[in-house]
Amino acid sequence: MRDKPVVIEVGDGAAIPDPRDEGLFTAWRISFFGTLAIIAYLVVFRPDPYLDIIKFLPDGIVVTFQVTFASIALALVLGLIAGLGRISKNTFFNLAASTYIEVVRGIPLLVQLFYIYFALGHLVRVPDMVAAIVAMGFCYGAYMGEVFRAGILSIDTGQTEASLSLGFNRSQTMRYVVLPQAWRTILPPVGNEFIALLKDTSLVSILAVSDILRRGREFASESFLYFETYTMIALIYLVITLILSKILSNVEHRLNHYERR
Amino acid sequence: MFKKIVLTLAMLLCVSSSAMAEKTIVFAVDATWPPMEFVNSDKQVVGYSIDYMTAAAKAAGFTPVFKNVAWDGIFAGLASGKYDAVCSSVSITEARQKVMDFSIPYFKVRQALIVAKDSPVKSLADLKGEKVGGQIGTTGYFAIKGAEGVEAKSYDEVGLAMEDLSVGRIAAVVCDDPVAANYAMDQYKETLKIATIIETGEVEYYGIAVNKGNTEVLDLLNKGIESVSKTDYVQEMQHKWIGQ
């Protein structure tokens, strides 16, 4: 059906392990089991301070995941709307979506986080966590918008033409013909954005949200063990993102399998 | 021509030797703590501590250089030798004394509890189950953590905590009393007030932190602080920065 395979490049997620790599020593295995081994070694042989650091972090890990999942949910909704807006024939809808993406992509994430967090405080009284999630979701919604747009455009126009000629209207075509096919192209970059977002949630620690990094900093500021604390934080982030990228890689492998059939 | 070069060299020598005679001490300052140390509208680091150390430097004969750094990690930078001393309203505590040395005290503070203007809260004990903010790694933050049933929330800068308090995201802020006064009576006088000076907390003294065993710098600092503390300049600075 297609002229050439569509590849959406998204650069800032974790590297996706190649599922066809069957060797015993893959980059993923070396990093994953290496990281686990280092953590285990530190905790067992140097429980003071490493075990104390690990004990200090669990609620931070929970908060990091809460912020990540809530933000990605918001970003997916905003992204779908923005993506549809970008290809919409309705001038107003199109312009609004394009302006949103243009503005958000032009401002550094950290600046936006600060801005939305403190601006929101003056408008409505919401808890800090909600403010951080809204800020993250708003920013990532724009990145997602571009992913959705590219995914939708990757579906051959012949499909739309056929669907329209069979009597579907535009929104039915989108809902029953284009989107069900587009999600296969969209899913891998969305997963990638998910990992990128998880890493970027470390920025919300600036906004006094008690995520992994903030918890670690609190520990370090009290114990003065900066090196040890940040070592542990880096290792924990690494374990989380490596697990996620493995899951993502497997999902992608399945999609490709389906495609090759 | 030759004469000119010799003259220039001689002048250079003079300048450098006179500069060498005076030891330069680089102070790390987190300039987000008005009125003790902050950045004014001319982008200069100013405040009570800065004036105090400048006077001490004159008395003891060293050249002070103030370097604006972030509070979180300020002691890590000291340990790794990025600067000689930390002059940033550092309260002398036992935990800190285990990892660094302190000069003789130069200022006395207590911890103040700041709340919204219409709040009935009188003490930390009234804040069970509420969020209370403080700057990360400060004695104010440790006081919150030590209070039973209060959820401690750490901020990078005390100003961010004040902003969150003024929009109602947290119930109170704990910080050093001159800083509390500065925020509650000046910048946020419409929305915030000082509920109490925390009575259970002990009196704290600010000292200059140096690396353990750095007696060369410590001796100079002590000499300077001691001679300044005996002068009327202290009252003058109190009046200028704190207004009492």
Report what the structure shows.
The complex is a heterodimer of chains A (261) and B (244). Helix content of chain A is 77%, strand content 0%. Chain A is mainly alpha-helical and 261 residues long. The mean pLDDT of chain A is 87. Chain B is built from 9 helices and 14 strands. Chain B has 2 domains: 2-108 and 205-242, Periplasmic binding protein-like II (D-Maltodextrin-Binding Protein, domain 2); 111-197, D-Maltodextrin-Binding Protein, domain 2, CATH 3.40.190.10. In chain B, strands 1, 5, 6, 7, 8 and 14 form a 6-stranded mixed beta sheet that branches. Chain B has a 5-stranded mixed beta sheet with strand order 11-10-12-9-13, sandwiched between helices. In chain B, strands 2-3-4 form a 3-stranded antiparallel beta sheet, with helices on one face. In chain B, helix 2 packs across helix 8 (215-229). The mean pLDDT of chain B is 88. The chains are: A mainly alpha (261), B alpha/beta (244). The A-B interface holds A 118, 121-122, 125-128, 131, 206-208, 210, 214, 217-218, 220-222, 224, 226-227 and B 72-73, 75-76, 79, 95, 99, 133, 136-137, 142, 153-156, 160-161, 163-164, 167-170.
Number of domains of chain B: 2
Oligomeric form: heterodimer
The shape of chain B, in one word, is elongated
Which second-level CATH architecture of chain A applies? Orthogonal Bundle
CATH fold annotation of the largest domain in chain B: D-Maltodextrin-Binding Protein, domain 2
User: What portion of residues of chain A belong to β-strands?
Assistant: under 5%
SSE-based structural type of chain B: alpha/beta
CATH first level of the largest domain in chain B: Alpha Beta
The CATH topology annotation of chain A reads as MetI-like fold
| Largest sheet: number of strands, sense, barrel closure of chain B | 6 strands, mixed
Low-pLDDT sequence parts of chain B: none
Helix and strand pattern of chain B = HEEEEHEHEHEEEEHEHEHEEHH
Taking the alpha carbons of the first and last residues of chain A, their distance comes to 14 Å
**Number of helices, counting only DSSP H or I runs of 4 residues or more of chain B:** 9
Q: Mind telling me the C-alpha Rg of chain B?
A: 21 Å
CATH superfamily of the largest domain in chain B: Periplasmic binding protein-like II
